[in-house]
Amino acid sequence: MLDSVKSLVLNSSYEPLQFCSAKRAIIMVITGRAEFIESDGYVVRSPTTTFNLPAVIRVLNIVKRARRKGISFSKKNILCRDNFTCQYCGTGGKFLTVDHILPKSRGGKSNWTNVVVACKPCNLKKGDQTPSEKGMELTKKPSKPEFYWPFFQIPAGPSSHLVIWKKYLPKSIFAGASNE
Ligand SMILES: [Zn+2]
After folding, report:
1. CATH for 75-134, among 1.10.30.50, 3.30.70.2470, 3.40.630.30, 3.40.50.720?
2. 128 alpha carbon to ligand 1 midpoint, in Å?
3. 85 C-alpha to ligand 1 centroid (Å)
4. Which residue has the higher pLDDT, 123 or 180?
């Protein structure tokens, strides 16, 4: 159980860092590397002691993000960055595609500044043209996100954990996660 249940780890600045196993979270708290922030009441018993299963912990020494490699470019991460909404008309929903602003056929690159989320109708309408040629406007200028999304694939866990995690994580992470 302790290996499958996850805990959310916050930086000492309270920014979300990553998920780790609840077992590791307990060890970090016991060894003084992190403090216990929140639990949903689950209790773990060992032969000698009991622990509140931490849903959220916070590291005590700030973890610098600078050393990390940048966020990887992928459709999934583009969807997260664009909050699962078409960047031309603002539609959300299930039938989203990614659009090359300068079309691939015309040398457009697959990168953070040339790829955005588009709904199928907008993608179809735009075709092989640029937004300005087609009189379409982007809702915002695309850029590489600062936030390190790949750590935030929300792990499976008790729904009570999910409720707690939502308080600490950006909303857009949950946008595509479920239909609640
Ligand atoms: Zn659209």
Report:
1. 1.10.30.50
2. 16
3. 8
4. 123
